[in-house]
Amino acid sequence: MKKVAVIGSGNVGATTVYYVAEKNIADVVMVDVVEGLPQSKAADFMHTAPLRGYHGSIVGATDYEAIEGADVVVMTAGIARKPGMDRMELLKTNVNIAKNASRAVARHAPEAVVIVVTNPLDVICMVALRETGFALKKIIGQAGVLDSTRFCYFIAEALDVWPGDVMAMVLGGHGDSMVPLARYTSVGGVPITELLDDKTIEELAARTRTGGGEIVGYLKTGSAYYAPGASVAKMVEAVIKDEKRLLAASVYLRGQYGYRDIFLGVPTVIGGGGAQQIIEIELTEEERKALERSAAAVREGVTLLESFYSPGSDDA
Ligand code: A3D
After folding, report:
1. Catalytic: 174?
2. Measuring from atom 28 of ligand 1, which residue has the nearest CA?
């Protein structure tokens, strides 16, 4: 079996492991700084193996050496957003955590594809790229799969149809300015523009943009993890099985959509080795402007990042 290392054994990390185990995708190593946490969750998962028919092993560790030789590393270590807390406020703490984790990945799992989940997502991807020194295609951020599944669910709910029949594409950064693309969203092949009026579509798009905040509002002390965990597991599976799935993912752009040196959510073919292709689709003037607003928000985060961080330094 291939090996997946999940750094951070909190809500998103453990939920990712749950979905990976349920689909027998790979052996798993869970890592966390809190002694006993990854070990306890890994043991608990393994006690489930006879009930659920798990084939692989799940082990927990507080030492990064355990990720040795991983094919995929999922980075969820960090602090979660609290109510009223902007994603950018997480920046300094999570940059430091991501920096150390990325260096450990470069040392122990040099062949791995890294799937970043830690927020602010598109900015932390940049830290992972710079600190690992990995090829561009090997650093991918999970946000678009989650944002798209939320859009799909809200559409299914509004139309009273099976959620699995809805396919959606959400572009941009993982923030309130993300860009749900109604024109590229369909139910069983029928564009939603044929099924819903403009006002309803805009309301569902708006709810998608604030979907994460809706969960934070209920939870008060944390953010969503079931849908994020399932989203990450989908990406892990795509890489491990070389599925070549066309998913919204945060990838490093080199001129695509007119952007350079930035991670932004765009349609990407995910398979063995990471981001195999970045797909450029036609955008209307309005969609392009919305993407520009989203890219500007990500750039703001990168500028903030660069005000206190430089690659390879220990001062972040
Ligand atoms: P939480 O349940 O607090 O888990 C985070 C875990 O990271 C904790 O168990 C910590 O002990 C651990 N940790 C902290 N520092 C380190 C370290 N240096 N090495 C290893 N482990 C460490 O949070 P969560 O799982 O809910 O969220 C984790 C991150 O994912 C946060 O930054 C969230 O904002 C982010 N998140 C992103 C999305 C996206 O779709 C992009 C969705 C949900 C959460």
Report:
1. yes
2. 76
Q: Where in the sequence of the chain do the CATH 3.40.50.720 domains occur?
A: 2-141
What one-letter code names the amino acid at 39?
Answer: Q
For residue 103, which of 129, 142, 72, 66 has the smallest C-alpha distance?
129
Residue intervals in the chain for CATH 3.90.110.10: 144-306
For the beta carbon of residue 11, count every other beta carbon within 10 angstroms.
Answer: 18
CA distance 314 to 252: 24
**Residue ranges for the chain with pLDDT beneath 70:** 80-83, 85-88, 315-316
Q: Is ligand 1 within 6 A of the CB of residue 121?
A: yes
pLDDT at 135: 98
Q: Of all helices (H) and strands (E), which one includes residue 294?
A: helix 285-308
Specify the ligand 1 atom closest to the Cα of 116: 41
Q: What is the CATH number of domain 2-141?
A: 3.40.50.720
CA–CA separation, 43 and 49 (whole Å): 10
pLDDT for residue 176: 85
Tokens of 198: 């403009």
* pTM of this structure: 0.96
Query: Ligand 1 mean position to 231 CA, how many Å?
Result: 15
In words, the CATH class of domain 144-306 is alpha beta
- The CB of 149 under 6 Å from ligand 1? The reply is no
Pick the atom of ligand 1 nearest to 141's CA: 41
Strand pairing category for 139-141 and 113-116: parallel
Angle (CA) 208-18-110 rounded to 5° is: 90
Q: For residue 1, which amino acid is it?
A: M
